[in-house]
Specification:
The complex is a heterodimer of chains A (78) and B (464). Chain A has 78 residues and is mostly helical. Helix content of chain A is 69%, strand content 0%. Chain A starts with a helix and ends in a 9-residue tail after the last helix.
């Protein structure tokens, strides 16, 4: 578990107070890879559909799209 | 006794802690958490979430920290009217708390932050809505970083919601046993096989449980993660999937139409109206700030208290009644009612480390006024609680008491006696008043019109 925590800490770059759990951690990496693609398809499809239907994009999707376009690197703020 | 007190519920996170001083509640932010706290404020996320009523507001105050060596600053958060716990919530309350957690995480990611925990205990109901109360739950997000709280979210929210919706609503009570959420292997075992056909549940619970089992006590090497973490798109996809899975879980009491759930009383409309008027008049006269309505059903009488300006807690043992009450309150945008699930014969105990992390129900009192309408016969006859013990319990939780006595010849009581021997010779109005008089002064007796029921207004002797 110590190795897991250090691997997670390495990725996160900060000490963790919650144990993310080895299995949970690996599953998340796997699921996120799949679900990320599905999500990208979903929001871009909605965007394309909006172009043709003229319907406005729901605010939360705009947030998601904008955040992907310009990933805020919060570490700059330090 | 020490005048300053560190709260027993906030010791796990080294980012800071809560403490009480001079009757006020403060949160110390530790130096170790400084960059994260500054980022929360500077990014505008704090303002955005508090404006939207999603995060508890606070002000930074110049108060001597409780642990000066570690301290960065001290906050004075807005006080939550009543602390409740996930095992006291109805299905939709837990669902709304889950959706709030995900909505906050999405907004946090948008501003370069992320939730570092997703504990259901960090959510409280205030002004009729769920609210995140832990200001120190945010950390600076770095590209590639997985969601550290993913496991906790599944244990605290997804597993209990799935069990409540698909297996049995009463399984919410497992939260009382497992303070860090329901273990996923247990949830996986208890869920019906059909839940494996639901992609969200199959992956976030069943597969998740298997992954935990496989890697229990094993580390993860960099080669297993290919040195990569989770892309932001991946994280948003994960959150979208969790949100979709939570949204897809629904619960309706089996065989019950909501319309049938209204109080099926056995007394006349005029008796009901008379009882309502009397309660209204008592509320107007006493102006209680906190009312505990015990056995509130769907909250009709709690609503009377709320309309008079009280914070009305509507406790009921029936998950369907609590659910219906919560949904009605949401629809009407009520801000002064809080329906909660409670078995009064076994009320929430103090649990957690040193039995001090989560308070018992009694420790969260006393109420200014306790309403106990059509309740005593359930305690005394269905649960064999002697009347003097009923009176004693009421005296420990309320300054004033409005209690209804339903006599033995009432059909509601007859129904309870139908299947058992009547061993309740002492169950009568006179003996009940006698029992109450040990702890209370009787201030008013109100016979309910067109019935043989009695309402009593009593003041706790310890008030004076």
């Amino acid at each position: 578990m110590a190795i897991c925590t250090s691997a997670a800490s390495h990725l996160i770059g900060i000490p963790l107070y919650l144990d993310p759990g080895s299995g949970s951690f690996l599953l998340q990496i796997l699921l996120a890879a799949l679900l990320g693609i599905a999500f990208a398809v979903k929001i871009y499809w909605k965007k394309i559909k909006a172009l043709f239907t003229g319907k406005k994009e729901p605010a939360e999707n705009i947030v998601a799209i904008e955040s992907i376009k310009s990933p805020a690197d919060a570490s700059d703020e330090k | 006794m020490k005048s300053d007190q560190k709260l027993a519920a906030s010791f796990r996170d080294p980012s800071g802690f809560l403490f009480r001083r001079g009757g006020k509640l403060y949160r110390q932010v530790n130096k170790i958490y400084q960059p994260n706290y500054d980022s929360l404020v500077k990014s505008g996320l704090f303002q955005k979430l508090t404006d939207a009523g999603m995060l508890i507001p606070h002000k930074e105050v110049q108060v001597e920290p409780e642990g000066p060596a570690l301290a960065y600053c001290v906050l004075e958060p807005e006080l939550v009217d009543f602390i409740s716990y996930p095992y006291e919530w109805s299905f939709s309350q837990l669902k709304d708390a889950a959706l709030l957690t995900l909505a906050i995480q999405k907004q946090a990611l948008d501003t370069g932050l992320s939730l570092k925990d997703a504990s259901a205990y960090n959510i409280q109901f205030q002004h009729g809505r769920p609210l995140l109360i832990d200001t120190l739950s945010f950390e600076i997000y770095k590209e590639g970083q997985p969601w550290v709280a993913y496991r906790q979210f599944c244990q605290h929210f997804l597993a209990p919601l799935a069990l409540m919706a698909l297996t049995d609503i009463r399984l919410s009570q497992l939260m009382r046993v497992y303070i860090d959420g329901i273990p996923l292997d247990l949830a996986s075992k208890l869920l019906p096989g059909s839940s494996r056909l639901n992609f969200g549940l199959a992956s976030h619970i069943h597969l998740h449980a298997q992954a935990q089992k496989r890697y229990a006590d094993k580390g993860v090497s960099a080669s297993q993660t290919s040195g990569r973490g989770v892309s932001k798109m991946g994280l948003l996809g994960l959150l979208d999937s969790l949100e979709g899975t939570v949204n897809g879980l629904k619960w309706l009491p089996s065989g019950t139409e909501w319309g049938d759930y209204y109080d099926s009383t056995n007394y006349s409309r005029s008796a009901f109206d008379d009882k309502s008027l009397a309660i209204k008049e008592f509320m107007a006269r006493l102006q209680p700030k906190k009312v505990w309505d015990l056995g509130a059903n769907t909250g009709f009488f709690s609503q009377i208290a709320a309309e008079q300006g009280a914070l009305a807690l509507a406790f009921d043992i029936d998950p369907a009644a609590v659910e219906k009450n919560y949904q009605d309150i949401k629809k009407r945008k009520e801000t002064r009612n809080l329906p909660l699930l409670m078995d009064l014969t076994n009320p929430s105990p103090a649990i957690g480390w040193q039995n001090a992390e989560r308070d018992s129900l009694s420790a969260r009192g006393p109420a200014d006024l306790v309403l106990a309408l059509a309740l005593v016969h359930h305690l005394a006859i269905s649960n064999n609680v002697p009347l003097p013990m009923v009176a004693e319990y009421f005296s420990t939780i309320g300054r004033w008491l409005v209690v209804e006595f339903v006599p033995k010849d009432d059909t509601q009581v007859q129904r309870l006696l139908a299947s058992r021997e009547d061993i309740f010779d002492h169950y009568n109005a006179d003996e009940f008043v006698q029992a109450l008089s040990t702890y209370f002064e009787l201030r008013e007796t109100h016979p309910v019109k067109d019935s043989r029921r009695m309402l009593y207004l009593l003041e706790n002797k310890t008030n004076g």
